[in-house]
Amino acid sequence: MRLKVLRPLAQVGVGVAIILWLLQLADASKVLAIILSLNPVYVVLASIFFIIASIMVALALYVALKRSGLRPSLRNVVMASFGGQLLSDVTPARSGYFLTPFILNKLDDTPIKSGMAGVVVTGAANFFVKATLSLVALAYFTRLLPLDPMIVNALLVGISLLIAGGLGLSMLMWWRRLPRLVERLGRLPALGRAMSKIVEMLDHLQEEREVGGSFAHATLLMLLSVVANATALYFISTALWSGSPSLLDFVFMASLAGALMYVPITIAGLGLQEGGYVALATLLGMPLREAVAFALIARLLFTGTDIIGLQPLLKIGVKASPKP
Question: Cα separation of 208 and 217, whole Å?
Fold first, then answer.
């Protein structure tokens, strides 16, 4: 129990320490002055595109659910997805998104096994899109910029986790022998009860295999989500610095920074993502203070726009509470 409490506290502490270090390097008071002087028009535009990016993720889930023959409310799917994304913003490796099926079940009575199948398919698509873009981005930036080996190694860890996540989710959904393999492990006395529950979960999940037919559409929507995120970053950069890189640079930057969010050293890559943004932005010519301001604004707007998900979380909290 103590470990469960100490681990997230340590992860938050590491992330905050990295951000404080960046602020110390750049002079915190001057970074704050830069942030406060931002043109609000660019802030609004960036926020709109972060919201569009989140909606693309929700649409991928909606398409997957429709493929299974369900007819959920589009609004409920979008709101449940925002709730899941908000939870993913405050959990290691963004694992909170896997609670989306439970939120959707409360909002729309969508079966949890169908919702989980949709999340697994869209999650696999998300991992593969970001891993592919990150590998291309790493090759692109290492050819143009003198990347520090420590940064490259951190990025390779993030990319490896994305690939492993994509493969793992794909196996959960499509590898028919996986439930039987787990069932064999369940013959071990110490693992029997736990493994039987896992086998049951896998059987339920693979019953929804038709959801897998939405993989191509989910991949396209996840790609559009990355482009929308990159556009938001472009507007933030334009507000801070007249020599803003191209939109393609931000597509690659968003992919690499996104890979760092899945390294479970901190909560949702807190600090690691900001460090990645600062390293790449400064190498592309952005002054250090503006780069730190850029990284902080990106985090604030990315998480701040997901606050839309607070409404469904509060709603299901009220529903779940006992009636007097």
Answer: 17
